[in-house]
Design brief:
five-stranded mixed β-sheet, 2 helices, 131 residues
Length: 131
């Protein structure tokens, strides 16, 4: 009886760690300046661990067939997203995928590898230029 109770408790505890959902949206128009709709991509990744990073979310979305992405991994800064759904940022044209999030939809101070979105948070990838 005690053994069954322990197993049930362990199962419920394990399930409680996989309940975060993250909404990922993208604007493909270069330098649109907007953070709101219409979006060119709008997906919700479900069943993430509470500690899942944005990189974990986009990897799961890719494995679930919801999006494609490409990027390079820097040993110090982690994943640098270079393409979303076949839309490549052209570094020769000073383009990059800016990532915005949080309650105020502001540019993130962390990259996809380090940023841990909250449950239900919307994260925006927006193609822009620098310089």
């Amino acid at each position: 009886m005690i053994r069954t109770a322990i197993l049930v408790t362990a199962l419920l505890l394990a399930l409680s760690f996989a309940d975060k959902d993250v909404n990922i949206v993208a604007i493909y128009q270069l330098n649109s300046g907007r953070t709101g709709p219409p979006y060119d991509m709008d997906i919700t990744v479900t069943g993430l661990d509470d500690s899942a990073t944005l990189e974990d979310a986009i990897k799961k979305a890719k494995s679930d067939g919801m999006l494609t992405y490409d990027g390079t991994v820097h040993s110090q800064w982690g994943l640098y997203v270079t393409a979303i759904n076949g839309r490549y940022a052209d570094s020769a044209q000073k383009q990059y995928w800016q990532i915005l999030g949080g309650g105020d939809m502001s540019p993130l101070q962390l990259g996809a590898t380090s940023y841990v979105p909250a449950d239900g948070e919307q994260v925006l990838f927006r193609l822009i230029t620098w310089g």
